[in-house]
Amino acid sequence: MKELLGNGQIRRKKARDLSVIVCCVRTSDLLRETLQRIRRALAAGNINGEIIVIDDGSIPGISHVIEKASAVKVEVSGNGYGTAVMAGADVARGRHLIAGIADGRYDFMELSKFIDKLHDGYDFALGCRMPSGEGNIRPEAMSFTRRRIVNPLCSFLMRTWFSQTLHDPCSRMFGISMNYYKRLALRSTGSEFSSELVVKSVLSGGKVVEVPITLHQVADGSVHSETSSLQHGGSTLMIYLASAPLRWQAGPGLTLLLAGLIGSACVLTGQAAFGGRLNMHFMVLACGVMVCGWQLMLSCFVLRLAAMRKGIIPGMDQAEKLFGWLARRSGILLGLAMFLAGIVLTVYSQAGKQSFVGPDYSNALKLVVSGVTLAVIGIQTLLSIMILKLVGIKTR
Predict the structure, then answer these.
(1) 234 & 123 share domain
(2) Residue 211: beta bridge partners?
(3) 158 shares its domain with 131
(4) Which domain holds residue 255?
(5) Mean pLDDT score of the chain
(6) End residue of a domain, out of 228, 243, 258
(7) For 42-81, what is each residue's pLDDT tens digit?
């Protein structure tokens, strides 16, 4: 990574109040317009700031544009939103950072809104494009799936899982104090960076606020997106789920597990429901639900530990204790005991009158289904423990 002024001279270190990080996207004309608007915004607000342009080599011939704007050029070898922002933050001299994308949609003339909030003592100010948060989306500036599905879903999960009201947690324009940014120790290099930034800001107890902004349509009339709505929504959901409280992670799986367990017990004891006695078809369904519930709980635990070990979410004492218990002999013994119990129950079902060729084959079938289910859950547990132990290895 090279840190140069636009004219190629070595940059002198000088403290600033604000560093504006500009991620290049699309064309040099959009970058030129963006840099001009930033300069006007800094001058209008009498802000002692610098402009840092991240050049990943995707747009040829932008050096003269950067030089004319007296901006700092930072060359990076890789692409990705997280890579660009972190590269700019590494060389920034400002007490505060504001980052955005030079794609013609984000209006950098709104810088003063962010800097005002940061001066008011907020640690993190996130641009809000959604009308529900007093933002503004110009016609055809955002795709239908992102506006009506991805953003509302992420906002709902933010309120439900993290007790934080954010109308637009997927925004790509934000302001943050330099000290707070360093404390978050962000890791993601791609589009997941914005999700990691929001989640860590909320979990760390920082003062978070939304700033209403306007999302514009790009000049060529296309609805541009750095990543597809499906890809962005999937990665965001993954980080949210890994960071959610344990009750939300274990709750759905535990509910399915208990429902399947109760359903199986009803069939085994000959209980009546829905106007008749429950049969084997219902038991097979109940056992399938039980297996799905157990696998869902184990998968959420593995996802959480993987995110913690990679530094994407902060470590949590409650989760560490649970993982420690599972990764020790307790988890292995639990899985092994369930597997062996399932095998024994299956073998026992073939003894005497209750075998498949005996008169009580229906009872044998109930025992076989129960035994196979218990053995499958035991295997799930053993495999998940192996993955937990591998993911849980601490490295330098």
Answers:
(1) yes
(2) 127
(3) yes
(4) 246-391
(5) 86
(6) 243
(7) 999 999 999 999 988 878 878 889 988 899 999 988 778 9
Using a 10 angstrom Cβ sphere, with 0-12 exposed, 13-18 middle and 19 or more buried, the burial of residue 213 is buried
Question: Which position has the token pair 């369930």?
Answer: 338
User: CA-to-CA distance for 290 and 154, rounded, in angstroms?
Assistant: 28
Q: Is the pLDDT of residue 38 over 90?
A: yes
Determine which helix (DSSP H) or strand (DSSP E) holds 55, and give its type and residue range.
strand 49-55
196: domain CATH number?
3.90.550.10
Are residues 271 and 224 part of one domain? no
Residue 393's pLDDT is: 75
Determine if residue 75 is left, alpha or beta; phi over 0 gives left, psi from -120 to 50 gives alpha, anything else beta.
beta
| DSSP codes of every residue in 343-374 | HHHHHHTTSGGGSTTSTTHHHHHHHHHHHHHH
Between the alpha carbon of residue 118 and those of residues 53, 78, 126, 128, 208, the distances in Å are 22, 30, 11, 15, 10
Residue type, 243: S
Domain count, the chain: 2
Buried b / exposed e along 185-203 (16+ C-beta atoms within 10 A): ebbbbbbbbbbbbbbbbbe
Residue with tokens 């909320």: 202
Please check whether residues 62 and 186 belong to one and the same domain.
Answer: yes
One domain for residues 281 and 199: no
Helix, strand, coil percentages for the chain (3-state, nearest 5): 55, 15, 30
Domain boundary among 243, 261, 284: 243
pTM equals 0.83
